[in-house]
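Now for one protein, fold included:
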Amino acid sequence: MTKYHKKSPWGLVSPYLSQVSPLLVSGMCTQPGMLTEACHFLSVTTPVFITATLHFTLPPLFANCDSKVLEQVANNASKIVSYLFLNRSHDILAHIFLMKGPGQTNKALSFILQLLRNAADTANIDIQSVIKSCMVPLLARLVVGMGDEDPERAELVSDHVMLASPAN
């Protein structure tokens, strides 16, 4: 296929990385061969693949509270898990706020707060301070979601924008 389309394997797969990379990375602890084979096909090392796809993989990993995989991702990216969150907090929080079901959202937010509190030792961290730290890019992500074709998703986004607004 790469010869037919005159593209490298990475170029061939790159339009689909948003769907493929979360699947590959989320299985790195249970099915490490999948990620290894994909990296071999793409001619990249596992750390390079993981680092290049963080913006696709971190939101679902934090949303699913997948601490084992997050630790492996952090090791491959030569970072700590709390840094990975803080570096992409607006993307991760937007993904979490767009999940259906308040139970899943609350579980993910509790997971993140516990992770940040553990990393900060004695610091008092609450969800409001986390949201305030990335308010503008988070609201931008959520406002873009308000134009979603799915009316249910647009309403969900609208509710979260109201909760995160400075007046509340």
